Predict the structure.
Amino acid sequence: MYLQRLELQGFKSFANSTTIVFSESGEGGRRGLTAIVGPNGSGKSNIADAVRWVLGEQSMKQLRGKKSDDVIFSGSDKRSKMGMAEVSLFLRNEGSTGKVQGTTDDTIEMLLHGPEIIITRRLYRDGTSEYLLNNAKARLQDIHLLLAKAQVGERNYAIIGQGMIDQFLFLSPEERKEAIDEAAGIRHLQIKKNDAERKLEATRANLHEAELLLKEIEPRLRSLSRQVKRLNEREEMEKELRTLQSKHYGAMYRALSDEVKTLRKTVGQGEKAVADKEVDLRAIQGKLDALEKAESSSTKLLEFQKELETLHAERQRLRDKAFEVRVAAERTKNQQIPMAAIIAGIESVRGQEQTLLTAIRSAKTLEDLAGIRTQAETLDQQLADLLGRVRGETKGKENEKNLGELEKSIEAVGAKIAGVQQKISDASKNEVAQKSAFFSHQREYQALLEVVTRLRAGLGEQRVSLAKSEQRLEDLESEIKNEMQITDVEKTLGGGASSAEPSPEAMANIQRLKQSLAMIGGIDPEVVKEHTMTSERYGGLKTQYDDLIGAEAKLLDLGKELETMIARAFNEAFKKINVEFGKFFTMLFGGGSAKLTLLEPEVVEDEEADEAGSPGGSTSAPNGDEVEPRKIRTRAGVDIQAQPPGKRVKTITVLSGGERALTAIALISAIIAVNPSPFVVLDEVDAALDEANSIRFADIVFDLTSKTQFIVVTHNRYTMERAGLIYGVTMGDDAVSKMLSIKLEQAVATSTK
């Protein structure tokens, strides 16, 4: 894997879109060496900052800025400021097939085994930022894991900036060990170990929470389980009680039902017998009533005599009426006038009427009308007289008609009188026979009435017995409904043959079960539902708890395994780096010796706690008792021992600036030699070296190109001579950096022609 190119836009002084293609290879299979040169202030170190920034650097101090938007081109008098900074870094895999086999982290492994990796970082002035891997959004954690697996460190030895050579020696032992960790290629293992530790911490937190929930639920679940158990016991008791009650009450109900049915049948038979006799009794009673209703002969004789007297009176009245009619007829006959006189009178009146009409037609004055009125009144009087005479004639005819009708009525009344007289004769003959029949029916009625009375008395007793049995049956049904909580007793217990009443032992068992149920008491049926829900929740939590226990064990095993792998890889790398460190130190100094010493962790007192306590390093509790200082365990670290030729030094702090720079370069070179990063960026790390050491430095860098690719920001002409590609950086009056490139081999070949 090597650094193919770098694309910048809006980053610091690189306002324009700029692409830097790096040297890929040199002579003898060496990796490329690209030199970036230019005057001070041209922005060449911004290229190293761009690489550091795109790899995820978060410290603005390392990027030579104060706030995050300092990396965005801030503008100049001739160029407006930019709203975004973007840097893309292109890594190329040599001979990649683009296939991934046997990987567990598909995303990272696919990128590592793919033909190209593109890491992009963008920042906007509003603070919005994003990372991309092969143009897909990614997290910073993904970037770190990818770089760790690719052996690219965003700090320490992969990108060495200005002033970091001297600072490298003054790192704490722990920080030096981190550099060795990166060199050992265990950074990705440490990331996994840290991730496992975070997961372990989270798992233990979840485990603690699950344990608390289980402890909270367990008492309630036990209580619900007891209630459900009691409910199950209650159901069994209720089932047994129901069985006993069914047998006990069923026998009683069926026996009493049969008794009621028998009594009802007996009562029905008695009612039929009484009804039959009552029919006979009513028949005799009917005969007696008929005889009673039939009038006796003496009574009828009296009635017939009265009727006869009434008829005689009616006939006499009719005769008197006929006499009056005859007298009236005679009177009317005497008052009649001849018909010729009536006709003459009518003709006279008609003549006068014509005269009156003529006078009415000819009348013209009121006086004429007054005379006509007098004539009319006279004519009216004449008509009234004539009409009275005519009426007298008509009345006479009516009297004759009425007289004929009266004579007929008198004859009819005479006939009725003859009939009544015959009835009087017949009634006298029937009186003796009626008396004999009445007394006979009366004796028969009395005898039958005694029989009906006896039957009714027996039926009454039967009905009383039936009523008592029905009441007992009704009371039993009420008791059964109340005891067994049923609504239809007949449907539930009525089937089957009847049997004798159950023994007292059965009733005793029923009472015993009822008392046991009363002692258990009522249990809410919702308890079962709550128990099920709580049990399911407890089971789910218990499963989660067990899973967390298993996950904790796996994470612990993974942590131990990673720790073993890290320790083994570190020890191997540490030994190799130590050897290379001594070799490069001797090469740079022309002698002397240097080595690395591994510092084991140790327990020390917490200095901050001592400072906060009482003088002398002891602390005091609130009650005045002395408390032992807190002990802490330090982390493992790496110490540096260097002995330049002809010097005895105990610590590297007494070395001169040049000696410290050479020592740091020796250590960095050793790290690169043992486990090289795909590329290394050196930003003016040779600035403090004299000419002789600059030559040695250039030789070392050139030798190391057999292991890794170098991008060197330098003023050193010896380094430039070793470079296969040189980029020149210039800056115009618009404060924008521009790139010029030249391949040294082509330039040399051109100059020799």
